Amino acid sequence: MIDCDVHCAPATLEALEPYLSDYWREYTTTAGIRLLGMASAYPPNAPTTGGPAPGSYEALREQVLEPFDPRLVILNCLTLCEAHRNPHYQAALASALNNWLLEEFLARDERLRASLVVSTVDTDDAVKEVERLGGDPRFVQVLMPIRADTPFGNRRFHRLFAAAAERGMAVGLHAWGRAGHSPTTTGYTLSYVEDYLANQVIAQTHVLSLVSEGVFDAIPELRVALVECGFAWLPSLLWRFDKDWKGVWREVPWVKERPSSYVRRHFRATTAPTHLPLGNDGATRELIETVGTEILMHASDFPHRHGPSAAASYELLGEEAREAVLDSNAAEFYAFEPAAVR
Amino acid sequence: MSVTQTTPQTGAPTPRQVSLVDCDIHPTLTMPELQKRISERWRRHLDRFGRRTPMITEFYPRTANAGFRLDSWPEGPGGFPGSDLGLLQTQLLDEFDIDYGILNSLGLLNCHEMPELAAEMARALNDWMVEWMDEEPRLLGAMVVPYEYPELAVKEIERCAGDPRWVQLIFPDSAEDPLGSRKYWPIYEAATGHGLPIAVHTAGYWPHLDTGWPSYYLEEHVANSMRMQSQLTNFICEGTFTQFPDMRLVLTEAGVAWVVPLTWALDSAWEQLKEDSPPIDRRPSEIVREHVWFTTQPIEEPDTPEEFAQMISQAGLEDRLLFATDYPHWDFDSPTQALPRSIGDELRQKILAGNAAELYGLPLAPPE
Amino acid sequence: MKVVVAPLEDFPPDTRKLVRVGAREIGVFRVGDSFYAVRNRCPHQGAPLCVGRVFSRIVSEQPGQFELADGPPLLVCPWHGWQYDVSTGQSYSPGDPRVKSYGVSVEPGSELVEGPYVVETYSVTVSEQYVVLEA
């Protein structure tokens, strides 16, 4: 079993002090900057949050590795999303987080992999960080939390994708991100549930953008994982996208095939959250079949909780499909060694 | 489609049943014409300063014949698709034997303007539509209101609601606040009091951004479906339907298929997060089934048409789909061609007329 | 059945004429010195296809590349924008319906993709300074 989304985060900035220069230590102290544990995205006491993200290898081992016994884990650290817009701070904090990930986790357990944290405000800084650490095979993808300033297909990101693809890295589009714009194109959300559900729509915006802007025509080796974004919305989106493309494709003539072909080839989606109707096996099966099990990759999204739907859906999969979702789809996508035959 | 039947005993024709209702037609009142119909004070203002609200076409030009069927431009100067009643009658109502068509005017669905100006323009637009409805009995109207000013909007509702040809109110799908917001509740109260459904129509001009600006019309066009997802989510999460148990919502020109995974996600999230939003007083999918209708255009076209029919029945949407052509836009759905053949006759008839007749309380016999 | 469309001198390049032949309406196009004819009915939803614009093909390998290419031009449906090779009636995008074809030699084009429908195109010749449609 490969777990494609497990969270970790330093509990306080102190944990990052060894990796921050004197200047930044002084800066964060003077500005009263504290880590908030992504409290806006994951309010500590919300039922879907589950608990704090493990802040140490020991905590990870105790809470995830021992109970669930994954053969590989991809760690996602979203801490940079709390950073403000000072680009130098972002670059420094990103490097600090990656160095922390290396020392605290990756160096201590062969099963651990991670998404590379990169600046969300400066593409060149992001590319520099990919150049610095992207050669290390334990960083399997570039982390891009989806709440951003610009849809990710935009040209300003292409050199980041190229740098990632050159090193065999995927791109991980992860739920949440830096608060800034309203979470929806209709305005601000008063309730958490509305904010929580906004991730699915934002993910759709990026899917449209990445295909429409020709990212996969420019970089055919690029792979994109939709992490914690859900997947049940894919079929209806792709029906619409394919149809609209047929009408206006001359605007984007580099999109040479129907968009759904690009998406099936280049995207995968993790299974947490799975929002499928409990107790409606028929509809669940049909949706999964329409999506295609080959694009699903198992994730616990520890510590977050999205309800019983994922487990219930796994029960409905045939043995071969379940094995693929639990392991070989991710193994293939991230070029991991296949699971040892038991 | 429209067939005169004879009763067996007498041989006299039985009244023809309404068999085709077009729930989304776009008439155009051109700006020069509108300006003639408002007060001098505001005519001067528009003349000098124009409108402040951007049009979406400034950001995303419709790269498909400027957004319209090429054959819908009226001949002669000053004409615009949808501005000529005669052409609309021949090209749409007569061509397809439409029994009733609902005029959904888009001209003021981007309206961040001064209150009195907004109110006057709405009044002018409504009065113009009445002229069309007077001349063409097959036409019904969606009332426009200055929606950002609920007090003024309620006044307009009270002014117009006596005319039974107004069958609904129309809102854009993006406004200053999400549409479920309390700000707009006085409007819903007045509309619901008069038994008027609220139509929310694709018209976004992006007053809000989630993750920034897409580059292409292709993206923006698909995103219409996503914005409607956000609005529906908002109506539910802000408890608008709890506040107004008789409210009926018609989501227009956003497609249909997306409502299925959305309601699943809403149900799943609500199970976990009930405490978060007490105004959601029951399962969201139930709320949707009780309060929401959808026009069909632009209808999704999966490779396997059976998938579409499956999806409709999974969501319990058979009684909630309303056929629409979206004339004169480029992605017009033909009444004779657009619905997948795999849909059975009973469902087809509901979509083409029965559901609309019930929602809008239309007489069963079409107008003469 | 042969139908005289117009004298050649009344049919300038890059213009079109609509001709009714029995129950069918057919659009005859002159592109440069070549003539094409297709049925005035888009197989998608029945739009008057021949009212649509005529465009060149586009070659684009990378985002930002917009090269107009040679070859028979594309007739774009005035409603939903589906595009048809006027010489063969094939639509340009994968899986789209195509206009029906009558006895015209099919010219293979590198960007054309087989669709599920057979399209009607008609042969046009110039005979003694008259443009003649065979339909």
Features:
heterotrimer, B: 368 residues, alpha/beta, 13 helices, C: 135 residues, six-stranded antiparallel sheet, three-stranded antiparallel sheet, 9 strands, globular
Overall description:
The complex is a heterotrimer of chains A (342), B (368) and C (135). Chain A has 342 residues and is of the alpha/beta class. Chain A contains twelve helices and eight strands. Chain A has an eight-stranded parallel sheet with strand order 1-2-3-4-5-6-7-8. The longest helix of chain A has 21 residues. The radius of gyration of chain A is 19 Å and the shape is globular. With 368 residues, chain B is α/β, with parallel strands linked by helices. Chain B contains 13 helices and ten strands. In chain B, the strands form two sheets. Chain B has an eight-stranded parallel sheet with strand order 3-4-5-6-7-8-9-10. In chain B, strands 1-2 form a two-stranded antiparallel sheet. By secondary structure, chain C is an all-beta fold. Chain C has no helices and nine strands. Chains in contact: A-B, A-C, B-C. At the A-C interface, helix 7 and helix 8 of A face strand 5 of C.
Count of runs of 4 or more consecutive helical residues of chain B = 13
* Major β-sheet strand ordering of chain B: 3-4-5-6-7-8-9-10
- DSSP helix fraction of chain B: 25-40%
Q: Residue share in helices of chain A?
A: 40-55%
The chain pair forming the largest interface, with residue counts per chain, is: A-B, 72 and 68 residues
Shape of chain A: globular
In percent, how much strand structure appears in the residues of chain A? 5-15%
Distance between the termini of chain B: 16 Å
> Taking Cα atoms only, what radius of gyration of chain A do you get, to the nearest Å?
19 Å
* Assembly annotation: heterotrimer
Which regions of chain A have little confidence, pLDDT < 50, spanning 5+ residues? none
Strand neighbour order, sheet with most strands of chain A: 1-2-3-4-5-6-7-8
Count of helix runs of chain A: 12
Which spans of chain B of ≥5 residues are poorly predicted at pLDDT below 50?
Answer: 1-11
Determine the N-to-C terminus distance of chain A: 13 Å
Overall structural class of chain B, as computed from helix and strand content, comes to alpha/beta
User: Helices and strands of chain B, in N-to-C order?
Assistant: EEEHHHHEHEHEHEHHEHHEHEH
